[in-house]
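Late entry, evening session. Most of the bench is empty. Finally got around to the prediction I had been postponing all week. Sequence below, unchanged from the version circulated by S.P.
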Amino acid sequence: MHSFWIVAVIALITALLRFLPFLLFQNRALPPVILYLGNVLPYAIMGMLVVYCLKSVSFTHTPFGVPECAAVLLTVCLHKWKHNTLLSIIGGTFCYILLLRFVF
């Protein structure tokens, strides 16, 4: 029962933190800084995720980062072509897995 209450409290706090901005700005216009962050943060987070995913790639040892670079290139091309984030992520992931499994 103790574990149930821990999970319940964590879920309640998580839901409260997610709904709090909507409750605070319910009848007011959003401040300019919030609008700015809403426009800038998605790109910053994507860049940070790419750097994090590629941080341990060795360009001096076999396979010289080829699977990673190919998967990133495919992901970018798929996104530019179809503008579908889910398709881009799945395509890049499958490309990377297939290259590691069958080529390298």
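Two things to note before I forget:
The two ends are 49 Å apart (CA to CA).
The CA atoms of residues 43 and 90 lie 19 Å apart.
Will write this up properly tomorrow.
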